[in-house]
Amino acid sequence: MTAPTRLGLFGGTFDPVHVGHLDAAAAALRALRLDRVLFIPSHLPPHREADPRATPFHRFAMVVLATNDTAEYRACDIEVRRTGTSYTHDTLLGLHADGWHPSQLFFIIGTDAFAEIATWYDYPSVLDLAHFAVVTRTGTPATSLENATVSYVNVQTPDVSSTEIRARLAAGQSIADLVPPAVERYILNHRLYSAPVNDLHGETERIHR
Length: 209
Prior knowledge:
alpha/beta; 33% helix; 7 helices; six-stranded parallel β-sheet
């Protein structure tokens, strides 16, 4: 692949990454004619009451597995390697320092997260650091901002959340079709999200039988 000129940036906790994330990235890739999408797991997300359940290492590894089969996707460790709170402002400035112009960067975000953009670090200046690609999500209306470089990607992504996946695992329930198969195997093999070991083994047999 040649050097990209339109770079998508998909930041998030990815605790774990799931099919909704991948569908949102695919929709933005098509609608905005992106050359590549970087998935950027946060080290410490600024807008969560509790720390991520999985370590940065595990969350990055799951993103690598989820993106391996798509040529336009890359896992990026820029925030995992940076200690402290992961601010989008710092990430975008780091990319500018690497030679990227704000007009080349497309930050992919769901409408639910974009509705809280006014609470972000260095708002509203952060909106000038990249183009924001807002992907619609089930049950969340689009939010408009004046004088902001914002595009709306009108597609309904699957109604799935990382919270739901963690709850299902803790209850020993199947997460088939909610995450890529490689991510499912990784979660089960590493016994992530406090799922009971006995239930996980039984669930694995049922899923792959």
